[in-house]
C-alpha cells in the first residue's frame, strides 16, 4: 500500500479546527489530569471464619424421628431440624441478642389476682436463664408485694435497706447482699412487708434505687402495684423502656387491662401504649366451640383482637398448675407449652431492645 493510500499525511489546505484558533481564556486552560490507573493491590478477605470459608454447616437434628433417621443412617441422611425446633431457636436468638446498657420493663395491671407478680417472676427467670448477664426484678408493690416469695429467700433485706446503705455500694457484690436469687439466676429485690413503710416509697426513692441497679444489671423488671396513682408509679412509667400489661382471660380482667391502657393514653403516654405488650394470663385449653373451658361465655379471640389493635404484641400464657401454687417458681416444673409461651413473651420484649431489627412474626 502506498504512503498516500495509508493517509499518513495532513492536507495543508484542510480547514483548521476552531479550538486551535480560539483565544486563550483569562483564567487559562485547565490542565488535563490523567486518570489514576486502577489499583492492582489485592484486598484480603474480611474474615477467615469457618462459616465464611465452608459455609453454614448443616445442623444435626436434636429430637424426634429426624434424630433417629440421622443416627440410623450413620449421619448420612440429615432431614434437618423440625419447624418447632427452628421456631424455638429463633425465639432464643432474639432473647439472647446483645443489649447495651440497662433495659427497664414495667409490669402493670389495675386489677389484682391476674398473675402480674407471677408473670414478672417467670419472665425474669426466662431472661435470666437464656442470657448470660444479670437480671433483677424489683417489687414496687406498696400492698405487701409477694414477688420475693417466688424465689428462695436468702436475705431479709429490702429495697429500703439498699437505699439506706446506698453510699457504700460500689460493686456488684455489695448489691448482692440485698437480693435473693432463684434457680434461673433471677434476682429479686423485695419490698417492705409493712404497708405503711411501703407507701412511703416515693418516686425519688425508686429513681435512686434504679440508678444503683442500672450500674450492675442488664435488665430491671419492676412489679408495680394496682394503683396507678401510687407515689412511685410516675417514676416507674417515665423510666420504663417498655410496658407489659397483664390481663386474665376473663371479661373483667380484660376490661381492667384495657382501662390501664386508657389511663396511660389520657396521661400522655400514648407512645408507650403503642409500644406496650399485652399478656393474657391463665388461658385454659379451648373447648369444642373455640371458647376456653370454664369460661365458656368469653370469646378469647375478641380479647386478643382488642389488644392487638392497641399494643405492639399480644402473648398468651396458658394455665399451669405449678404457677397456681403461688409458691417458689421453677421453670423446670412448668409444662412445655408454658415455657414456650414465656419464651415467646421474652422474645417480644427483646424485639424492643435498642438496635433490634423489627419483626412481624405471624401468629401461630
TrEMBL record:
Residues 1-22 are annotated as: Disordered. Residues 106-240 form the CobQ/CobB/MinD/ParA nucleotide binding domain. SUPFAM superfamilies: P-loop containing nucleoside triphosphate hydrolases. One of its GO terms (molecular function) is ATP binding. GO terms for cellular component: cytoplasmic side of plasma membrane; cytosol. GO terms for biological process: negative regulation of cell division. Signal peptide: none annotated. Transmembrane segments: none annotated. This is ATPase involved in chromosome partitioning. It comes from Mycolicibacterium gilvum (strain DSM 45189 / LMG 24558 / Spyr1).
Amino acid at each position: 500500500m502506498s504512503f498516500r493510500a495509508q493517509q499518513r499525511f495532513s492536507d495543508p489546505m484542510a480547514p483548521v479546527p476552531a479550538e486551535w484558533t480560539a483565544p486563550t481564556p483569562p483564567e487559562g486552560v485547565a490542565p488535563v489530569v490523567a486518570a489514576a490507573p486502577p489499583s492492582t493491590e489485592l484486598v484480603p478477605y474480611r474474615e477467615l471464619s469457618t462459616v465464611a470459608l465452608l459455609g453454614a454447616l448443616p445442623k444435626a437434628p436434636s429430637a424426634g424421628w429426624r434424630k433417629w433417621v440421622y443416627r440410623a443412617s450413620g449421619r448420612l441422611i440429615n432431614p434437618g431440624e423440625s419447624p418447632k425446633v427452628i421456631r424455638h431457636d429463633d425465639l432464643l436468638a432474639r432473647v439472647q441478642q446483645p443489649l447495651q446498657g440497662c433495659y427497664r420493663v414495667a409490669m402493670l395491671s389495675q386489677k389484682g389476682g391476674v398473675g402480674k407478680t407471677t408473670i414478672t417472676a417467670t419472665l425474669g427467670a426466662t431472661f435470666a436463664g437464656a442470657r448470660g448477664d444479670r437480671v433483677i426484678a424489683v417489687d414496687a408493690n406498696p400492698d405487701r408485694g409477694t414477688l420475693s416469695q417466688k424465689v428462695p429467700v436468702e436475705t431479709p433485706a429490702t429495697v429500703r435497706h439498699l437505699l439506706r446503705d446506698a453510699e457504700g455500694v460500689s460493686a456488684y457484690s455489695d448489691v448482692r447482699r440485698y437480693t435473693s436469687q432463684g434457680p434461673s439466676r433471677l434476682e429479686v429485690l423485695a419490698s417492705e412487708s409493712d404497708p405503711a413503710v411501703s407507701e412511703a416509697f416515693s418516686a425519688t426513692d425508686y429513681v435512686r434505687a434504679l440508678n444503683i441497679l442500672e450500674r450492675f444489671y442488664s435488665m430491671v423488671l419492676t412489679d408495680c402495684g394496682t394503683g396507678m396513682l401510687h407515689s412511685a408509679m410516675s417514676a416507674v412509667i417515665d423510666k420504663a423502656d417498655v410496658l407489659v400489661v397483664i390481663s386474665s382471660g376473663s371479661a373483667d380482667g380484660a376490661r381492667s387491662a384495657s382501662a390501664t391502657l386508657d389511663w396511660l393514653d389520657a396521661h400522655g403516654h400514648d407512645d408507650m401504649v403503642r409500644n406496650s405488650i399485652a399478656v393474657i394470663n391463665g388461658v385454659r385449653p379451648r373447648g369444642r366451640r373455640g371458647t376456653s373451658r370454664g369460661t365458656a361465655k368469653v370469646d378469647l379471640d375478641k380479647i386478643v383482637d382488642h389488644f392487638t389493635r392497641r399494643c405492639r404484641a399480644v402473648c398468651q400464657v396458658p394455665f399451669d398448675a405449678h404457677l397456681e401454687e403461688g409458691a417458689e417458681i421453677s421453670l423446670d416444673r412448668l409444662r412445655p407449652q408454658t415455657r414456650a409461651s414465656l419464651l415467646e413473651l421474652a422474645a417480644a420484649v427483646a424485639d424492643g431492645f435498642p438496635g433490634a431489627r423489627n419483626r412481624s412474626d405471624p401468629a401461630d
